[in-house]
Amino acid sequence: MAVAAASLTASAQLLINGAGATFPYPIYSKWFYEYSKVDPTVHFNYQSIGSGAGQRQIIEGTVDFGASDGPMSDQSLSRAPAKLLHIPTVAGADVLTYNLPGNPHLNLDGPAIAGIYLGTITKWNDPHLAALNPGLTLPDSDIEVVHRSDGSGTTYILTDYLSSVSPEWARRVGRGTSVRWPAGLGAKGNEGVTGQVRQLPSSIGYVELVYALQNKLPYADVQNAAGRSITPSLESVSAALATAKVPEDFRFSIVNAPGEGAYPISGVTWLLLYEQQRDPQKGKKMVEFLKWAMTKGESMAAPLNYAPMPSNLLQRVLEKIDKIKY
Amino acid sequence: MSAAAALSALPGRKSILAPPSKAADTAFYALTFAMAITVLALVLIVGVELFRGAQASIHSFGWRFFVGANWDPVNNDFGALPFIAGTAVSSILGTAIALPLSLATAIFLTELAPAWARQPVSTLVEMLASIPSVILGLWGIYVMVPWLHDALFPLLKRYFGFLPIFQGPIGGGYCMLSAAMIIAIMIVPIITSIAREVFRAVPDSQRDAAYALGATHWEATRLAVLNASTRGIFGAAMLGLARALGETMAVTMVIGNRPGFSASLFAPGSTLASTIANEFVEAVSDLHLSALFELGLALLLVTIVINLLARLLLGALGRKTRLGL
Hints:
Helix content of chain B: over 70%
Radius of gyration of chain A: 21 Å
Largest interface: A-B, 38 and 35 residues
CATH architecture of the domain at 88-285 in chain B: Orthogonal Bundle
Oligomer: heterodimer
Distance between the termini of chain B: 46 Å
Radius of gyration of chain B: 26 Å
Distance between the termini of chain A: 37 Å
Number of strands of chain B: 2
């Protein structure tokens, strides 16, 4: 009986499909679920197949909206048949997790992380690292570097940060969801990096903040552009968001943000959709959902360990959403 | 009286066995033929789609793709040589490690094991094949690699460190040698079962002749069975190699995923299959995707060629058996 009733409702429902980034999947799932209580006539279906696939699918029009952890490049945008909008939803951060005896609380800065991942800083007791951690005796062992072998928004955020703090990194490697790593081992997914760092003494790797919090991993403080040593947290990510320079098309980067309390390795995730919606019914529902997400939905972000958008940015996002035509 | 005859004897009842129908036979032939063609068509479709997807990359890089060593998604420059080398080294090494193990197991199962033990042991070996690749990869990360890193690799480095393949830092243990070992574990069942068939095909008269000449167990096995089976063993090894080439998940979890070359087996590496698995989902630029398609095409062609060669070698085995030689 319940199944029959549910299927009756389902057949009357409008189905909106989306695909893309894996990082915001938990918060999007929560939003779609909560929104179905607000408006039972629409049902959202989201496949977390990765930012790259999400960008491709929205360009090809096989989904109604895409999601990406990295902003689309000008080249990708030019391939879209119509104007694509970037709607920032939530933010997160990359943390550096490590495996050292005694689990000390490490302090790092941009050049240090760049040096480690470039392979120029090879030992834990390197003078640069020792200078950043005066209270610790770091071991005289090789740093086992771990990075992502698969393409990911997580990698994008870190390489974006390293490109802004290290000219050598910008020249040799650059930013992207997949890059040519100069050093280190590749592991698949946040789980892979965590597994390798946990198993491998003297190693260091990067994972999403959400992931580190939920799995209780040790992570380092990072020195920000203001010179202060910041512990990764939702507050410090929000601080980075608050001081970010956001252009009109919302493709912005919040790495190395100028604020006092800003965590420097932060990043935003976006929903991608066309300014001119092809289906008026779906377009109307999409806009209603987005407005709900940007108002009610944002309050659900923090309990799930995502940093919500600050109110000044939300205001601009809502104005942009008003521009969507259907 | 048989049941059919009894029922036919009932008044007004037609025979249970309908008269032979030409139509049914034709339909049967057509249906099975269609199924067979579908299987062939699937392989062709995969090949064609890979080729189409790889077009952008083929046009951009041409032959340079297979000799280029730079895989740079940010600057859209792709060269597949590190992965080709990585696939070759890990697969060949894995097969080389698996071969003695498999042959020894096969000899044990055909020549030496007591009759009651043969079935259980061979079932256990086959069960190894049923372990999903991902599970084996997880076991690799949490059990095998730490053990290799702590126990076996230091030993190899200490006693065989003069060889270039065992020089260089041991690092994390996620390296070519770990990948080769996990590949070996995965292909042991297939090589063992084919080698068993190969050994069973050697007629007992050969073994009896050896024993009659006063040979020991090992001598008889060597003279009568192994000598006669070289072609078959080679074919089994090639089938194992073909399987090894395509191993993806378990390999990507232990190989370190680092495109590059090194003489040392302790250095991390990368294979065609693991790169495709890692980068396909997030590949943003069309050229990156196309380059991955081209990797897939290369892998498909190599696997097909090796499989064909293996079948040819083993096919000769079948002919010999039927002639009773």
